[in-house]
Amino acid sequence: MHSDGLFLTKKPTNNWNGFHLILPSVSISNVGQLAVDMLLHNLKDKVKKVSGIYDEALLPVTGKDHNGEIFESMEVFEAENLKLVIIQQRAPFIKGRIPSFRQRLLAWIERCQFKKVTILSSVSSHVKTDADLNESSPFRFLCNKDTIRKELVSKHQWIEYSVKKLLEHKGSLELPGSGIAKSLYEDSESQNIPFVVCLVFCNHGDSRKELRVAMQHLQQYLNLEWALGELSEPSHWKIQSAYDNELMIF
């Protein structure tokens, strides 16, 4: 099924008008994708896979997941009762094809009439300012709508991301390691749909601590504490830690 440029492998049965779209950006330490995995795991039977997305910008990948189910390069999940649509990206982009993908994605978002869009991503810790170093939380956010931005700051005490480039393109945001989050956010400023980018500062390696901080903020923003309960990690994550598997390897 073509939907303004994006090819959905199955036609969704529901109208997503008024739903909240959540998607990851392939970023440093894979925080965005891991956050989506954790969200799907903790939603349990409240969420189901409804389609895949095939696009020429994505490396074509398929295989079996930890449950023995076939996975695709990009997948679409729906939590109907929570009015959530969640995208998971399991394959990298093909170089040079990201700009056209962003156009197709934004057209699809507009066509589906999503109420809000949240992008989950991360940014390299080396760009922290003195002000960032004085903050205990690695979490930051960006929002293209003033009303929501002010609410997140005043109601939830979120800290807005503010690192700017100093030399060329002075004044524009500097988001190294954030994947397509920066360009999607800049594209969103011309959109009527509210976009929120959830970011954590991190480095390469085990980012579970930063991931949990991001998930706590996402729960807060989506008011999902009651639906998710105490967060647990997917069981297949155990293979991520070399320390946990040292004896298994040898």
From TrEMBL:
It comes from the Eukaryota. Keywords: Chaperone. The keyword Chaperone applies. The keyword GTP-binding does not apply. GO terms for biological process: proteasome assembly. InterPro entries: Proteasome_assmbl_chaperone_2, Proteasome_assmbl_chp_2_euk, PSMG2_sf. GO terms for cellular component: cytosol; nucleus. Belongs to the PSMG2 family. This is Proteasome assembly chaperone 2. It comes from Clytia hemisphaerica.
